[in-house]
Amino acid sequence: MTTDIQTQTERAAQTIAASRYVIALVGAGISVESGIPPFRGKGGLWTKHGEPPMDGYERFLADPATHWRQMLERRASDDEFSQALREARPNAAHVALARLESMGVLRHTISQNIDNLHFEAGSVAVTEIHGNRTKVRCIDCGARWPWSEFVAEHPEMASDVEGAPACPQCGGVVKGDTVMFGEPIPRAFLAECDAQAELADCVLIAGTSATVYPAAAFPEMVLRAGGTIVEVNTEETPFSRHASATLRGPAGQMLPALVTALEAVSNTKAMKGNLP
Ligand code: NAD
Ligand code: ZN
Fold first, then answer.
1. Which of 40, 123, 132, 218 has the most ligand 1 atoms within 8 A of CB, as the residue to mutate?
2. Out of 2.60.40.1180, 3.30.1600.10, 3.40.50.970, 3.40.50.1820, which CATH number does the structure's domain 40-87+134-177 have?
3. Confidence at residue 18, expressed as pLDDT on a 0 to 100 scale
4. Mean pLDDT of 208-222
């Protein structure tokens, strides 16, 4: 570890340890070391192949049955993103976030990822604002089910769909939980994130360019209320200049180092507490 990264890691640990309520905002960069490419930035799928059509949700509403057929095909396909998502396992960054949560340091994670890796690593307090690829959701009542459970109850879907399946609770339209371009983020997710950002006095922003709204609005809220930012990213972002500490490097190395530094801070506190 270079001296600069070591200094920044210690500064990050001190900032976090001095905070009352810490939340995290994370994005695709967290899962890069699990083999899932990001969309933006170096090696990003959009950087290589261009941006996809932005009217996905409009097309879904016009023809849900075609969406279901395409979704089933995509899940089985070998395109770069589908295959990476299927094969990915949590990396050291996910494990470090779960550890920070179990230490009582991190109170909530707002994730823009859809890959389910936070839960596989053991995190519990997570809001996935862009949904979760392992779930389906009713766009009318908001109910969610694990994909496998829903498909088990609709065996016809495992091979082919004639029409789109209906919600067993309200008869509404069911789609994959992943939020599409043009689709509003479910209101319950946004309300949870707003509540968390209001409580927070420190945001750990990791593996995200934080340029997409509403995600970018949460650290802005915390900054406006006088809170602090700790950033982990391989590149500079619009929040870098507001950060109290910046760990410029891969999340799979920087976050475990932050955990170690925080453990040292809490051991020191515990030792001081034991002094007569
Ligand atoms: P983004 O804008 O958050 O960009 C990724 C960020 O990660 C960049 O700032 C990049 O510098 C940083 N980064 C790359 N490798 C890193 C590493 N090893 N450690 C730390 N930081 C690293 O996200 P995006 O790629 O533009 O994706 C847009 C949206 O698409 C996401 O919000 C998400 O909804 C979806 N997406 C999800 C996944 C996933 O679930 N794993 C992957 C790609 C895209
Ligand atoms: Zn419903």
1. 40
2. 3.30.1600.10
3. 96
4. 94
